[in-house]
């Protein structure tokens, strides 16, 4: 029996995102996205739902500007980086990007020679991972107090829950060596 790929819609994401706890969602400019070589699915999601200005784990997005630029233009990087469209950055300053011609979200690891690090298979799945991670933070704070997440006092049942959710939503994004797998494994090591 084949499991259907159920992708979160922009409407579902907007309804589920807790703006009071996690800040507003900021949409991208429809006209500005027309020239960006990404899938219709990615463009629709960015226009209709957007992304938060910032989100755990230590991610910031440029969605407040409503526009995307490629890394070559934004930072004067070599030509091969024109295939990456800047969404934001990690807490280390590494660019979080959309990969041209797709809906894939990747990170360019500057500390590793500008190599690509897979984050999610699509923008909707990335947004759903952000939602799950925000819920993990909220659940941890409820269980252990305001500093519980920062002090890595995450209940084991909550970590098990996030692992199940990530595996259900986008198995490729939780494979060995991916951004999200490394994030969860880092939490387990502390």
Could you give a short description of this structure?
It comes from Saccharibacillus brassicae. This protein has 8 helices and 8 strands; from the N terminus they run ααβααβββαββββααα.
SSE run: HHEHHEEEHEEEEHHH
Strand order of the largest sheet: 3-4-5-6-7-8
Number of strands: 8
- Contiguous helical run count: 8
What gap, in angstroms, lies between the N and C termini?
A: 39 Å
List low-pLDDT spans: none
Shape: globular
Helix-strand makeup class = alpha+beta
**How much beta, percentage-wise?**
15-25%
In round numbers, the mean pLDDT is 91
Major sheet: size, sense and barrel closure? 6 strands, antiparallel
Helix content: 40-55%
Give the domain tally.
2
From the alpha carbons, calculate the radius of gyration and give it in angstroms: 16 Å
Protein name: SMI1/KNR4 family protein
Pfam families: SUKH-4
InterPro entries: SUKH-4
